[in-house]
Design brief:
By secondary structure, this protein is an all-alpha fold. It has 17 helices and no strands. The protein has helices at about 5-35, 40-50, 50-75, 80-115, 120-135, 140-150, 155-180, 185-210, 225-255, 260-295, 300-330, 330-335, 340-355, 360-375, 375-400, 405-410, 410-435. Helix 3 packs parallel to helix 6 (about 140-150).
Length: about 450
């Protein structure tokens, strides 16, 4: 962390995570591709379930960011006792998060869909899908927490293996449960949670056998309030920041469904497709955060800045490729989901318009992760609030008043422009407050 050449270190740390997240994006898309063979309403059920799935991932990964930052910083300071406490308390928080979602999913899944639509096929399929995904979500919470422990100690390759194996299991089981066993949308959920549980099992094994830098003591474990507060001081803003996406998606679905349910299907497909662009960037960030946090603890500002600059360069390159795909091949991308002529009519201009914001998004994503790594998660929260709630939703609503659906999609580029402006301002603040004192 403190001596390898920055480019080699960033690539070594990030590449396995980026690959595993690409595979994760693949099996999320495969779920929807298989479901789209049932009907557009089945595809809509999975799309409308996205806010719930995103919320679970937000809580799991946000907590993971807090674990990652505290553990890496502790290792940089050679404080191994605190690093072990961060690991143990992180797993405890993962279990607590699972219990909350399992209870909420069992009780309120149907209500969640009835608030959005009265189409029976969507409500029934969506309720079954969300109930299974939440009640059996212990796999994803443990998987993400344990993978962050591996990443924090530079063992990203094992994290990649766990995700690859889980994704492979999910992809193989999808057609079996959906079509062979004729479980429909519920079958997609079963395949998903079985893949997550498998990943969690592999993560336990790799942490026990390969992760010698930390020692997790569960016997006699007691929650440590001070450590939990430090995890959540970084993690909660990250959780809220990612959870905002669930609020945004739910609210945007409400706006779009006023035009047609096909518009919400297009949005659901967009979020599946954009994961191929954003997931690698998130993987890049996961590799960047422990490097920045470690060198912050070791008081090496030149390595921090060099890492961030390289991450922005790589992220922007990935985003340019994403824009090219969405601009040149939108009909091909939608065709994977059995798009009707009407869905193509709506979806082609939607993908082309929304993808414009990719050009700025790479810088914003890397910036937010850097702020979190340095303990300024609130700045990341502010950026996310502005992007997804303060600008995007009001803009989408105002544009919807025109009665022209194609204008609503412009809310995405407008919100990204506003958040980029804030990122630049916050970069200057962080440089004066955190970087200059280290020189």
């Amino acid at each position: 962390m403190g001596v390898l050449p920055i480019n080699r270190l960033l690539v070594t740390m990030s590449a396995p995570i980026m690959l595993s997240m690409l595979v994760s994006a693949l099996y999320n898309v495969v779920d929807s591709i298989f479901v789209s063979r049932i009907s557009e309403n089945a595809l809509n059920a999975v799309g409308l379930a996205f806010p719930v799935q995103n919320l679970m991932i937000a809580v799991a990964t946000g907590t993971g960011v807090g674990i990652n930052a505290l553990l890496s910083k502790s290792l940089g300071e050679k404080n191994f006792e605190r690093a072990n406490l961060a690991a143990s308390n992180g797993l405890f928080l993962a279990v607590c998060s699972y219990v909350v979602f399992a209870v909420a999913g069992a009780l309120f899944s149907r209500t969640f869909f009835l608030v959005q639509t009265d189409v029976a096929e969507i409500v029934e399929g969506g309720t079954a899908y969300v109930t299974i995904c939440t009640v059996c979500s212990f796999g994803i919470f443990l998987q993400i927490a344990l993978e962050r422990l591996l990443q924090s100690t530079g063992k990203s390759v094992y994290s990649m293996v766990t995700q690859l194996l889980g994704a492979a299991i999910n992809i193989v089981l999808d057609p079996v449960f959906i079509f062979v066993l004729d479980m429909g949308v519920a079958g997609a959920a079963v395949a998903t949670v079985l893949g997550q549980i498998a990943s969690a099992v592999f993560s336990v094994y790799f942490n026990m056998k390969k992760n010698t830098e930390i020692s997790i003591q569960l016997r006699g474990f007691r929650p440590n309030g001070a450590v939990i507060r430090r995890i959540y001081s970084v993690g909660v803003p990250s959780i809220i920041m990612a959870s905002i996406g669930s609020v945004m998606t739910f609210s945007l679905n409400k706006i779009l469904i006023g035009f047609t349910t096909t518009a919400t299907a297009v949005l659901g497909v967009y979020f599946k497709l954009q994961s191929f662009v954003f997931m690698p960037v998130f993987g890049l960030n996961n590799g960047m955060v422990p490097i920045v946090a470690y060198n912050f603890g070791a008081r090496k500002p030149e390595r921090m800045l060099g890492t961030v600059k390289l991450a922005v360069l790589y992220a922007t390159g990935i985003m340019v490729l994403g824009v090219a795909a969405f601009q040149l091949l939108p009909d091909v991308l939608l065709g994977f989901f059995e798009a009707s002529d009407f869905m193509l009519e709506i979806g082609v201009p939607a993908l082309r318009t929304i993808s414009i914001h990719f050009l700025l998004a790479g810088f914003g994503i890397v910036s937010s992760s850097m702020f979190q790594a340095l303990g300024h998660g609130v700045l990341s929260l502010v950026i996310s609030l502005v992007r997804q709630l303060v600008v995007l939703l009001p803009a989408a609503w105002l544009l919807s008043l025109s009665g022209r659906l194609e204008l609503v999609w412009w809310a995405f580029p407008l919100s990204e422009l506003a958040s980029t402006t804030l990122c630049i301002m916050f970069h200057r603040y962080i440089y004066r407050k955190e970087i200059l004192p280290l020189t």
